[in-house]
Amino acid sequence: MKGDALSGTAAGDFYVQTRMLILSENNRRPNIILNSTLKTASGTNFNQRRYFDTPGYYFDLEIGKSLSLENRFLNEIRFVANLGFLCWETTNSTQNDAPMYGWKIILSNHWFDFDNTLAGYYGWMNNGDAPLVYFSRLTMKRTNFNIFVQYQYGIYDFPYHGVQAGFSIGLTKLTPKYDR
Question: Is residue 7 part of a domain?
Fold first, then answer.
């Protein structure tokens, strides 16, 4: 990519996250999870503002509630909201802090998840640090891994649209089983 081009490819940052269950969901109450995340400065293509060129971290509280359905196509609808705090070092040694927020609805059956998310954060520097982004993701679920395709649309302070595809491998021996 050269100049001010808004297309191209880039490698992403690396995130390490711990998710702590605060309250387990039941028929009357939602799930509440505290996320603690550390981000490296390993992303590429910083000149096009694809990734932060600095380390950062964030904490957020995630609240979710599922509704079970009894039909052949859709087994569950899950509503999720999160609110948190994002902090990152800027290139001029100033720290930017931002409240972060998001809403998600997930439609699920035994084979697929269809997620739709609206999320963002609001930094204090007013230099493009208040993005609002919509994501739509289709995940094919398998026993030990998942395959996904995702579309991303930048609504505000994020002029990129993108399609991502990938897979995740579950580490079942390290993943606790929570009863709902």
Answer: no
Q: How far apart are CA 129 and CA 77, in angstroms?
A: 32
Backbone angles phi and psi of 48, in degrees to 5 = -95, 10
Give the model confidence (pLDDT) of 90-99 as tens digits.
777 678 899 9
Expressed as residue numbers, the domain containing 141 is 15-174
Half-sphere CA count of 67, side-chain side, radius 13 A: 9
- Residue 61 exposed, middle or buried by CB count within 10 Å (0-12, 13-18, 19+): middle
Residue 82 pLDDT > 60: yes
Q: Residue 90 domain-assigned?
A: yes
9 found inside a domain: no
